[in-house]
């Protein structure tokens, strides 16, 4: 699904977190295909991140291994990458989904919430804060935050309460920062995918379960990672400043608000 030409992001550097994941791998290719220099962050999946940018010239890509589970690590990632190559766009995509079953042991509940909030809110929020403050100080920049439809309606999965809450929190922070820095030329956009055909959304599903989930959606199929990546690419261009602070729903009419 191509919405960008090969020069839409020419001359810009994009820091993409979670480049080794389902949405991240496709997004890396879309951004590079639009002419951006992609700084691709991964935690453990270096091979997947490399494959995502396999066709991109070495001069147009940088791979960075970093654990974003603490605010300190997130700040360090921003400061080091931005110092080496000025970042024009942040795509905040990295996230974890840890089971927090309502009827499970307290220890599992507590541990799941702690890990989810550390990565999806504390680390991600610190990185987003660093980026938007830097953008404001130099007259502009774009951040695209990947949230979830679960952030808007709660999770339909009983074991995913922490994930849904974390995605609501990072969406809310994005909205606050969008309003705070709008007169400084900073754009902060949120993308809220429904059930995507890759990554966290379908992890652990067998073919039969995937088909059953798809049948329960309004379109009768999952949202594709290509569709999400294409929208991220469009928002990354900053071509519609008045859209800042908004959430773009990509769920095939399964949830309309």
Give the total of domains: 1
- How would you write the strand order of the largest sheet? 3-2-1-4-5-6-7
CATH class: Alpha Beta
Helix/strand structural class: alpha/beta
The CATH superfamily appears as NAD(P)-binding Rossmann-like Domain
Rounded to an integer in angstroms, the radius of gyration calculated over CA atoms is 17 Å
Task: Assign the CATH architecture.
Answer: 3-Layer(aba) Sandwich
CATH topology: Rossmann fold
**How many beta-strand segments?**
7
Low-confidence stretches are none
Give the overall form: globular
Which range does the strand content fall in?
5-15%
Helix fraction by DSSP (H/I, runs of at least 4): 40-55%
Could you please describe the fold and organization of this structure?
With 257 residues, the chain is of the alpha/beta class. It has one domain: Rossmann fold. 43% of the residues lie in helices and 14% in strands. The chain has eight helices and seven strands. Strands 3-2-1-4-5-6-7 form a seven-stranded parallel beta sheet, sandwiched between helices. Helix 1 packs parallel to helix 2, helix 1 packs across helix 8 and helix 3 runs parallel beside helix 4. The longest helix has 32 residues. The relative contact order is 0.16. The model has no long low-confidence stretch (mean pLDDT 95).
